[in-house]
Each structure stands twice: as C-alpha cells, then as structure tokens.
Amino acid sequence: MSQIAEEVAINLGERSYSIVIGGGLLADPASYDGLPHAANALIVSNTTVAPLYAARLRAALCGRYALIHEIQLPDGEEHKNWQTLQSIFDVLLERGCDRKTVLFALGGGVVGDMTGFAAASYMRGVPFVQVPTTLLAQVDSSVGGKTGINHPLGKNMVGAFYQPQRVICDLDVLGTLPAREFSAGLAEIIKYGPIADLEFFVWLEQHMDDLIAQERSALVHAVRRSCEIKASVVGKDERESGLRAILNFGHTFGHAIEAGMGYGAWLHGEGVGAGMVMAAELSRRLGLVNESFVGRLRGLIHRAGLPTLAPLLDDQDNAGRYLQLMRLDKKSEAGEIKFVVVEGSGKAMLHSAPDDLVRDVINACCR
Amino acid sequence: MSQIAEEVAINLGERSYSIVIGGGLLADPASYDGLPHAANALIVSNTTVAPLYAARLRAALCGRYALIHEIQLPDGEEHKNWQTLQSIFDVLLERGCDRKTVLFALGGGVVGDMTGFAAASYMRGVPFVQVPTTLLAQVDSSVGGKTGINHPLGKNMVGAFYQPQRVICDLDVLGTLPAREFSAGLAEIIKYGPIADLEFFVWLEQHMDDLIAQERSALVHAVRRSCEIKASVVGKDERESGLRAILNFGHTFGHAIEAGMGYGAWLHGEGVGAGMVMAAELSRRLGLVNESFVGRLRGLIHRAGLPTLAPLLDDQDNAGRYLQLMRLDKKSEAGEIKFVVVEGSGKAMLHSAPDDLVRDVINACCR
C-alpha cells in the first residue's frame, strides 16, 4: 500500500473495518490485500464515474477475482430508488454470482448507499467495499454502514445498517470532482466541528482556503479527522439509538430542503449547509449558542462555497411545508421532530422545539 | 398467557426471543406482554387470513398501541415481490409511522418473510412479531430470522437475516387451514427427523395419523420439537455460514420444482416433500443411507399427503433444467451445487455430487 496512506479504524467487534486515506490507492492492487476471496466481483458505478475510474479499479482487482462484472447506474439522487437497485440484483443473478461475491461501490454517496443496500440484501448479505470518489462520500456516507434507497415519500426510508469490509479514500480522484460537489463535501466536514471538536472548527476557519485549493496535507487532515470523529461516534452507537443522531446536525432541515425542492435540485451537502445555519439559529433561540457562533458558522459555510440561506418551499405556507416534511424525518417520534442542536463547545444533542419557534427559525433563514 | 402454552427460547445474544406455542394465544392480550412500546402498530396480513383473524389480533393489541394500522397483501407466493413489499412501505409512510412502530406478521410464510424484510428495511430496522397462521410458518419460516422476497430469477434472492421480537404459534388457527396447506407444513416437520433426531422420525411414523387429525397433544409435541431443533441449529449459526444449511434438506431440489413449475403451482412444502425423496435418493447413491431408509422416508411423506414424485420441468432435457435451476441456489459456490444429504442416523451435511449422478437421481424420481 502507498506509503503516504493513513488508516482510521472503525471498531465494531466482528464488523470492524478500516478506512484507508491517501493518494494513488484506487489503482494500487495492494489496497485490496486481505479482502475476502471469491470467484466473482461486481463493480457498481455510475455513468459519470465509470468512464474515469472503472478500468483502473478493474486492473487493480484482476489478480484477485476470476470474473469481474460491472454495472453503471444512472447518475443522480433521483435514481436512488428501487428500480435502480433492482438492476444490480438483475446483473448479479444473470451472471450467476454466488453469496461470496464481493461488491465494489465506485462513486459518490448514491452509489455507495445503493451498493451497500444491494450487498446487505443480495442472498441476505454479501461482502462489499467502498471506493468513494466524492469528498462527501469519503468523509461521511461511505463510513458507518448506513445504506439505503429513497421512497417517493422520504429520503433513505428503506435500507439497512450494513458495514463494508474496507473504505478506500483515494484523494487523487477528487481532482475530477466538480467544484459544486467538492463544496457539498465540505459541508459534512464542517459539520464535525460544532458537534464534536471545536479545535477542528477553528482549524477549518484557518484552512478553508487550502481545502478549496485541494492542498494535499490540508485535505489529508480534514478527511482523516472527519473519519476519526465519525468512527468514534459510530463505534459507540452503530444503529443510531441515540448518540449517532448528532451526525445529522443540519440534516433535519437539509432533508426537508432536498425533498421539498425535488431530489437532485439541491445537492445533499448544499441542503446540509443551509440546514446547519438553521440548526445553529434554532440552537441560538433555545439559548445554547450566541449570535457570534452562528455568524462564524455561517461565514465558514459561505467560504466553502455553500448556500447559507434556505429556499422557499411553498408560497402560501413555507414554514408549514418545512414542518410537514420534517415530521417524516427518521428521528421523529410520534410526530415530534427531534432536532440536532449544538452547544457552542463542540457538543451536540437531540432536542425538540415548539412549532412556533421552528417557524420563526425557518422564516428568518429562508431567502 | 394461556396456561397450556409452551415456550421455546431462541438464544442469539441481544437478538434472543421466544416462540410461544399453545391454544387461544392470538386473541389473548397477555401473549403480547413485554413487547416494545410504540405509538403505532401495523398488522400485515393477506386477503385470506385477515378476514378470519385480523379483528381478533387488533382487539388483543388495542390496549398496547394507540394507532393500529392494517394492510392486506394479495395472497400467494407469486406476490412475494418488490411491488407488494413496497405497498407495506407506502402504508407506513402515509400513516407517518416512526421507527419505533411494531409490525405484526399475521399469515403464512409469505406474509412472514415479507413483513420481516419490511421491518428489517423500514428506516433501517423496526421491531416485528410473527403470528404465523400456517403449520409451515409455525414450524419453520417464522423461526430463525430469514426474511426476503423473490426475484424473477430466483426465490428469496433478496432479503435479510432479521430476528422477530417474539413468535406466537396459536394452534387453534390451524383449524381453518386447507388440508393441502396443512400437509405442506408436515413436510417441514418431517424434515427435522432425518437431519437431527431419528427418535423424532420414529415418533412421526407412529403419530402421523394423529397429526393429520390435528390431535392437540400430538400437534403440540410436533410443533415444539420442530421449533426446538430449529432453535438449536439457528442458535449455532445465525447467518447460515455452515451448519444452518442442513435445515434446507430437500430444499435444493424443492426450490427447483417451485421455480420450474412457476411460483405458486406447487406449494413450498410440496416441493420439499418430493425434494426430500430426491435428496434421500442422492444420499443412498452416495452410499450414506440404505434403500430401506429411503423407503421409510418416502412412506412418511406419502402418509402426510405430500407428493413423493417430482414433476417434469422440461420435455427435452428435464435433468438439465433441474441442474440449471439448482445452480442458482444460494448454497451454490462458483457454480457447484451443494446438496444437503443425510446419513440415516439423524445427521445431515453439505455435499457436492457429479452432474451425472444428480441426473440419475432426477430421472429416477420424476414421474
């Protein structure tokens, strides 16, 4: 494995695995040493990423697997549905893939979530490896074992907690990522400061320009620290019974934005960007942080190239539409929305809030 | 809980649960004591079973859950697919069911498998309870945590290992079960003898007439002993990495029959009945059991009202068609079919066999 690679361990007992971070990993056969043996492998990618990297991944794997199959999914959140998932099962069964077959998710969060759910469900579970090609997937979605698809009535409503065998974060591939998607990934990196590590928040304020310029040492630090924080949280709460929910800082509002605008219109990270401003504003109105903290967070999100104002979802009753969508959030219980709020000291918690207060926050944060 | 109820424990660490067996359990609110609290429950049943028992189950649950929703699936193996599963998610989301919602599977194996997979996947996992209304589901499919749906290219190809909170086997409901389905359930009961308990095999030879007459004490013994054997096997191998596969005695051939005839034409238990004769004949040709053992098993299957001759699946190359279908079996590895064979002493194991020998078995066992 490349000498500059760093490793973060996810400790989940017999489901433990490691995240490897560095340059040139994807095409290096050594990156795949120690993975389960099988006759078949399936590379799941999409029509955007496959032309760039599938051949390199295949070449790196061809010494390990006799038959390497490939499927290209249509690109985009709007295809994160059952029909697309079914196309993965179709290929697996048409090619006679048995239950030792190893799936490789080569792409962003959508490819990773769908490949993971396909691996969780095919013959009730086959191994899979995450090879995330977006910054967002490297620091968030490919780590932690959340897999799934969207339902017309809600995002990620159908899925499984299912851990990969390994996550390979090749930083070189970020060079081909559109700037808008790179920014969307920064949203999830920024998230880790307010919820878990104020020092990291300060570091991000100091290094945001380096990150935007994809300066290598800054990138390695940001990706590694993000994965470490996520690993620590997931290690304590694999199935999101409590603590893990703090990783959804900004996501309750963000999911409402994504769903309300129609999946794909706003990138997930963009929704989280504006959503974090809303969640911070809610925290302020609950007396947990001051105006200056909200301002600093808003400034950092803005410098990352992300929206800090949320969109109008309804001309008549915008706040009501947000509330309606948020009640479908998986953290809701018996219709009560649970928000992730922050305390300003690098800590977060779940908190409910009166509808009127939430309406005020929405009205204050929408353009 | 009713005083005559017996309990079998499934020991799977934090996923342990119990099977309760007796009369009058379904309508007794005490049967549900200790289940997780929630605002919502969803009874999943089908158009055949719901009119008979859904109201009774609802009445027994109404003291525990504020909102009890209901969905009736179309009846039959041919509906064990994604479209039907999706209809469960639709109801859950339309009714705003959160991730504490408890699902109740009221029906046979198809309802149980789909409800279990829906519970495994909805919001990445909600609790569920099995209330099996067929003999087959009581002694087999509702115990052990195998859930899933069929794919056009294979049975149970998409699913999850996901354990219920409890299994409630109410023997009274078997009174409304058609004789053909009761016989299909006997196939899975018969299975446990050759693979694990020769004494039970002998007991079944002595009590088959009592079972057919649904004599209560015989029924309690047969259901309890079946669940005990299954519990013991599943407790040692939850995810079917080895030992658990012996529960599929007769199923490799049986699945080929079901798939080859078109799902629904042969009941699962009927396929297993004829499939056990084929697997025993294969065991004999491998030198593991003698002709007398095969004859005794065939006789028992016949007395249970089950087919002992397999159907022709192809006029041109019948054995080839069987082999083609069996290569899709989940136990196959790299195209090699693994058969469950028996030794005659109440033991089973996985075994491969040359195609020619398997062809001979198929030719000898088809009508």
Describe this structure as you would to a colleague.
- Chain A is of the alpha/beta class and 367 residues long.
- Chain A folds into two domains: 6-175, Rossmann fold; 179-198 and 236-365, Dehydroquinate synthase-like, alpha domain (Up-down Bundle).
- Chain A has twelve helices and eleven strands.
- Chain A has helices spanning 50-61, 82-94, 109-121, 135-141, 179-196, 198-212, 216-236, 251-261, 268-285, 291-303, 318-326, 355-365; strands at residues 6-10, 17-22, 40-46, 67-73, 102-107, 128-132, 146-151, 154-161, 166-170, 339-342, 348-351.
- In chain A, the strands form three sheets. A seven-stranded mixed sheet of chain A has the order 1-2-9-6-5-3-4, with helices on both faces.
- The termini of chain A are far apart.
- The mean pLDDT of chain A is 94.
- Chains A and B meet through helix 2, strand 7 and strand 8 of A and helix 2, strand 7 and strand 8 of B.
Q: What do we call the CATH topology of the largest domain in chain A?
A: Rossmann fold
Annotated CATH architecture of the largest domain in chain A: 3-Layer(aba) Sandwich
Number of distinct helices of chain A: 12
Mean pLDDT of chain A: 94
Number of strands of chain A: 11
Whole-number total of structural domains of chain A: 2
Question: Could you give the order of the helices and strands of chain A?
Answer: EEEHEHEHEHEEEHHHHHHHEEH
Taking the sheet with the most strands of chain A, its summary is: 7 strands, mixed
Which structural class do the helices and strands of chain A define?
Answer: alpha/beta
For the largest interface, the chains and their residue counts are: A-B, 39 and 39 residues
Spatial gap, N to C terminus of chain A: 48 Å
Mind telling me the CATH class of the largest domain in chain A?
Alpha Beta
- Percent of residues in helices of chain A comes to 40-55%
What is the radius of gyration of chain A? 20 Å
The assembly state of the depicted protein chains is homodimer
Shape, principal axes of CA atoms of chain A: globular
